[in-house]
Design brief:
InterPro entries: Beta-prop_DCAF12, WD40/YVTN_repeat-like_dom_sf, WD40_repeat_dom_sf, WD40_rpt. The chain is mostly beta strands and 425 residues long. The chain has one domain: 7 Propeller (Methylamine Dehydrogenase, Chain H), CATH 2.130.10.10. Helices cover 12% and strands 39% of the residues. The protein is built from three helices and 33 strands. Strand 15 and strand 16 form a beta hairpin. The chain is globular, with a radius of gyration of 24 Å.
Length: 425
């Protein structure tokens, strides 16, 4: 009986494994289908209005976002709100951040005021989130799903713009103070101090690696590669296992307004004022090509790499999708099949209404962010009254199935307050 029971158990396990493999295959196929067929079929579900009515007029400009799980999103704003949006229940709440702890060095003061939260990152295990702190030069680590404070990371003297997990318990921060830092996070509830400090000197302190401000840090778990982007016009590859030792410095051909970066095991994408530069860090000559933004000089504000698709958002609220296989932008509207047939010479389209004419139909190649919410303050009435204010696409992120894209942003102009948040599906 024991042997027979063991065979039955083994059979059940194999069936489960096959079922799991089959489901994973279906999910991958569905993901590829969504990427190939969209964005021409996407619909926008904007949630900005509900946000404004729930949290009031103080919420301003969504700078960063990450999926907490399949149906919950975490969003960081310029007004220093950490928001959780439940897409299934349609519920929104503001997550309290731990108070700013005392520090040895004063934070640099600027005429721009506070910057808010510029990065939100969930660790691979899904049990912690690292984001900006109450003081924007700090990084707050919270436990998921209850958002209990784990530790506040103190050491940077200027705003933290980039946060990246390199393991379930190690996180890297990058700041405008030209430095990066590697932090070891304790297990929740093990009695560690509420604050972790790093000094400006010493092998375990902040690592001042750059001549310019650090605008983004990204880690790829497949290649174990950590990359940091700086306004001095370079991407540095750092070794997280050797205390952030620099292994390579890649000089960028386009260096104006470097604010965003994304990477996967074989590719780095860096956004600048009018281009997305593609790099292959495995090659001796890393430069591959630069994809010109059709939105002219409006600035690339967010970039993503998803399988064969490069997507990027601009300062005027346009979201583009570039097929890396075909080296072409994807159309974002279906072709008007009712107006054409393909019986022309060489299979070219001809107009049914006027066969002699062969109009060159040009599909739209971007998604335009919706109206969102704009605060009608004095600056608006002085400079923008009556104008169609566009929201910059500061962040966009895919869910695990690649069937939904969360997009968020706000007005690009300094001092103009507003917000945009939507799920495209």
């Amino acid at each position: 009986m024991g042997g027979e029971g063991g065979n039955v158990a083994l059979s059940v396990l194999r069936q489960r494994e096959c079922g799991g493999s089959h489901r994973a295959g279906l999910q991958r196929a569905a993901s590829r289908h969504y990427l190939d067929c969209q964005p021409a079929l996407w619909q926008e579900k904007e949630i900005t209005g509900q946000l404004a009515s729930t949290l009031g007029p103080d919420v301003d400009k969504a700078f960063a976002a990450a999926w907490q799980d399949d149906h919950r999103l975490l969003v960081g704003t310029k007004s220093n709100h950490l928001l959780q949006w439940d897409t299934s229940a349609g519920m929104l709440r503001s997550i309290p951040l731990p108070p700013a702890p005392p520090r040895q060095h004063e934070v640099m003061e600027t005429v721009w005021g506070a910057c808010g939260i510029h990065s939100v990152a969930v660790n691979p295990a899904g049990d912690m989130v690292a984001t900006g702190g109450t003081e924007p030069a700090d990084c707050a680590v919270l436990r998921l799903p209850d958002f209990a404070p784990v530790q506040t990371l103190v050491g940077h003297v200027d705003w933290v713009f980039g946060v990246a997990w390199v393991s379930d318990r190690h996180v890297v921060t990058g700041s405008r103070d030209q430095s990066v830092a590697l932090w070891s996070i304790p297990e929740p509830g093990e009695g560690a101090p509420d604050v972790q400090y790093k000094g400006a000197d010493g092998p375990d302190g902040l690592q001042r690696k750059f001549e310019g401000k650090v605008r983004d840090v990204k880690y790829d778990f497949e290649s174990c590669r950590l990359a940091a982007l700086s306004t001095d016009g370079c991407v540095k590859l750092l070794d997280a296992a050797r205390n952030l030792r620099t292994t390579r410095t890649v000089k960028l051909p386009l260096t104006k307004e470097l604010v965003c970066m994304e990477q996967r095991h074989d590719l780095l994408a860096v956004g600048s004022v009018g281009h997305v530069t593609l790099l292959d860090p495995r090659r001796r000559t890393a430069d591959l090509c630069s994809v010109a933004s059709p939105d002219e000089s409006q600035g690339v504000r967010s970039v993503q790499l998803t399988e064969h698709l490069l997507s990027f958002g601009t300062g005027r609220g346009k979201l583009f999708f570039f097929d890396l296989r075909a080296s072409a932008f994807l159309p974002t509207e279906p072709a008007p099949q009712h107006a054409f047939d393909y019986g022309g010479e060489g299979g070219l389209p001809r107009c049914k209404l006027a066969p002699a004419l062969a109009p060159a139909w040009q599909p739209r190649q971007h998604l335009q962010l919706g109206p969102g919410h704009v605060v009608l303050n004095d600056l608006y009435y002085d400079h923008f009254a009556g104008m169609d204010v566009k929201h910059a696409c500061y962040a966009h992120t895919w869910d695990a199935s690649r069937s939904r894209l969360f997009v968020c942003g706000g007005p690009l102009a300094f001092g103009l307050q507003g917000l945009y948040m939507a799920v495209w599906h």
